[in-house]
Amino acid sequence: xxxxxxxxxxxxxxxxxxxxxxxxxxxxxxxxxxxxxxxxxxxxxxxxxxxxxxxxxxxxxxxxxxxxxxxxxxxxxxxxxxxxxxxxxxxxxxxxxxxxxxxxxxxxxxxxxxxxxxxxxxxxxxxxxxxxxxxxxxxxxxxxxxxxxxxxxxxxxxxxxxxxxxxxxxxxxxxxxxxxxxxxxxxxxxxxxxxxxxxxxxxxxxxxxxxxxxxxxxxxxxxxxxxxxxxxxxxxxxxxxxxxxxxxxxxxxxxxxxxxxxxxxxxxxxxxxxxxxxxxxx
Length: 282
What we know:
The protein has helices at 19-28, 39-50, 54-57, 82-88, 90-100, 127-131, 183-190, 258-261; strands spanning 6-8, 30-34, 60-63, 69-75, 104-114, 122-125, 141-147, 158-161, 172-175, 178-181, 195-198, 205-209, 214-216, 225-234.
């Protein structure tokens, strides 16, 4: 997908957030950064996850209400392993900080795994549709979706409604066994806003606003679809009630070089989500 909201990494593994980047994010509700993770970083991340990863030991299945299961792991603090270095890196956290216009902290990360032929769907929703109930008073929040594998229509890529963040928060109700945005309202919005299939190569990333409507279909292909989704909150938007995700916790940013320099698989301190409370996981 090529659009005014698509950008590429610069030299020396850096991404410069120019006024044009910020303007695109504010206008469309998202930006895409091609090769946010370079090939060596992607290979190292894949190898870490696939070698009996401690992260995978904390994963669990989530029924989509239509006979399919997606697996996920969710944690509240970035930690010291490669996933933590990615979440704390200048090109990820630093970019989101500029897009949201102020200091951010790590709200949580999800490793989403749609396996071939079995991966489930997710209905139309806004992240702030859930986070609003957590005591986050303002939609000063966003998510970075980083493709670990190629994601396309066949294996259940994200679908977004461009500019839908401008509609504000939509009521969220039970939909197809999940909690999603009111489909009557979504249908009205679909009539006037373009639907975009977010097809990404491994290492590409989608930065999106917490009020952007998005969904994904089941994975009916012979290829898996794994991705990291890292959520950030503005420090100024510290939730007013304690809940299952962190209050403001200063983020120890690291240079991008620390992604490849990371030599530990230690996941202590991440505070993994208990599957018993998975229904609150957003």
